[in-house]
């Protein structure tokens, strides 16, 4: 009896099919042809030759210009002696200002009291209940130090609080006399 199935040839065809799965269908497809590469090489060499002949510069012939800028910084001699002149505006005489240092604003009252305990060496610390500006329905516990009569004392207290690891802000409350 004759075998019409041709099993041997079908096995070979399956192997060939499996091998050609990962190959591209175009066998000799080059990305950039050799004529294009040769043309680019020719153009770049021509540009190099033209630039060397046209821009014939000698680096030794370049001479720097003279410096014509003369900058003189003049400041009062009183600054050397650690004294600073602060100009006073007479417009502030009709207002009385008090200065506060805001240590923080906490959503939980427990954290406000912890901040007050950490800063127990600083006097005039109070905890106030305020409502936040961004979320008016949220109650915050603001830790303030003050009031102080001038900005200098408030800045000194602010530096002491900063050394304790907080990020305080200076707040000013001015009222008309």
Describe the protein's architecture and organization.
- There is one protein chain.
- The protein has 177 residues and is an alpha+beta fold.
- It has a domain at 92-176: Alpha-Beta Plaits.
- 32% of the residues lie in helices and 21% in strands.
- Strands 2-3-1-4 form a four-stranded antiparallel sheet.
- Strand 2 and strand 3 (139-148) form a beta hairpin.
- The longest helix has 21 residues, at 34-54.
- The mean pLDDT is 75.
Distance between the termini: 126 Å
Task: Assign a percent range to the helix content.
Answer: 25-40%
Give the CATH superfamily of the domain at 92-176. Sporulation related repeat
Beta-strand content estimate = 15-25%
Shape: flat
Structure class: alpha+beta
Distinct helical segment count = 4
Query: How many runs of DSSP E, i.e. beta strands?
Result: 4
Spatial order of strands in the largest sheet: 2-3-1-4
Under CATH, the topology of the domain at 92-176 can be stated as Alpha-Beta Plaits
The CATH architecture of the domain at 92-176: 2-Layer Sandwich
- Elements, N to C (H/E): HHEHEEHE
Any idea what the radius of gyration is? 42 Å
List unreliable stretches of 5+ residues.
none
């Amino acid at each position: 009896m004759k075998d019409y199935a041709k099993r041997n040839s079908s096995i070979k065809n399956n192997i060939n099919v499996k091998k050609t799965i990962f190959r591209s269908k175009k066998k000799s497809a080059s990305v950039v042809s050799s004529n294009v590469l040769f043309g680019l090489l020719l153009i770049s060499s021509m540009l190099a030759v033209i630039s060397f002949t046209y821009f014939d510069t000698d680096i030794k012939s370049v001479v720097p210009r003279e410096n014509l800028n003369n900058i003189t910084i003049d400041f009062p001699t009183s600054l050397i002696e650690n004294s600073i002149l602060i100009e006073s505006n007479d417009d502030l005489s009709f207002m009385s200002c008090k200065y506060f240092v805001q240590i923080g604003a906490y959503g939980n009252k427990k954290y406000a009291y912890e901040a007050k305990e950490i800063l127990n060496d600083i006097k005039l610390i109070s905890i106030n209940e305020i409502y936040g500006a961004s979320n008016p329905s949220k109650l915050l516990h603001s830790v303030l130090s003050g009031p102080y009569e001038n900005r200098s004392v408030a800045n000194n207290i602010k530096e002491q609080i900063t050394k304790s690891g907080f990020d305080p802000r200076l707040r000013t409350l001015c009222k008309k006399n």
